[in-house]
Amino acid sequence: MRSHCSIKKFSIITALTMGIVLRLSSPSYSGIIIDSSGTPFVPVEGVLQYQSEIENIFNTTGPAFATAILLANIGGYPVGTSSLGGPGHFFVGLSLNVGMANMKFFDDDLDRPRGYYPGFGPNPAIFAGIGLDDRLDLFLKFFMYNDSIYRPPVDFSYASLTGINLYSAGAKFRYRTVDRVIIFPGLFHFGGIVLSLGADVMSGTLSFDGKYPYDLGTILVDTGGSGIQPAPVVLNSIYSAKMRWYMASVTLEGLVFFDIFWIFSVYTGAGITLGYGTFEMKALAYGIGVTTNTDYITNRGTDQIGYISATADTLYRPKLYHPLFIIGFDINLFITRISVESVVDMRNRSDINLQLGARFQY
Questions:
Q1: Is the pLDDT of residue 88 over 60?
Q2: Which of 239, 304, 314 is nearest to 281 (CA)?
Q3: Using the 8-state DSSP alphabet, how is residue 82 labeled?
Q4: 3 state DSSP class of 358
């Protein structure tokens, strides 16, 4: 009887755990309303294709931005030495890291789905560290910015920045488990092995307007005297969009360091981050469909097949956990250090974080 109760309790706990994991890792909602009443020469089949393509833009791009922002959230600590040296030793500096998803770094020939656009997530920070003892360090980062301070002059035909707010903070404890070993004096040293545990939070909003021509591919169109035919269509759209996000994560890493001469350090390792957050995207768009189908242009006297409007209110969550591969490079210019670091999401090896840091270290 006791064994049966234990199995029942275990089953309930397992089911609840799986339910929570699935809930946290799935989209909260995806609401897209498309008004295609302005396309009288597009039959029902073509309208459905129209709508499918528009929805595909959001549902393939939204998760990419959610992942990119999660990867940006865990960055901000590019440090290429295994220990700061104990009490009295510290550093302070600036870092810039960018999360990027849906990229083609590792397989440029991969056949991507239509609407599969890259996503980006910026996260600059002021970061600092202090040596607590010979093996234990504490890192901190912080950033707060809004467009009342300064709005970057981002103004392209496809995107013009109209608002930006960004807040982030984090802390990381780092412990050196294996000490530094001199292999070839003055030439090459084993720099040690460290384990680190960090927690990071981030929130922000980004709004912009723009114009963008989107290739809808081939849809069915009533060409007039020539009947219904497949026709290539480009949607020339005008849009206004706003993104809002909240991210929190806990990250465990293990890194191995190597020193070359006294000026260069290389480090690499692996880690895992557990993250939870939301990425919300709202947009209003108006577009005119244009075709190159010669029968349509001849019979209708225009290349325009009509207009549509779209309203989107979607929310996406990144995956709950991400295995990581880390590689970095550090340059020692006496008390000034410069670091470059990359973190690769091993789920797909195409979502990455790139970091650049400059610090004063004593």
A1: yes
A2: 314
A3: S
A4: strand
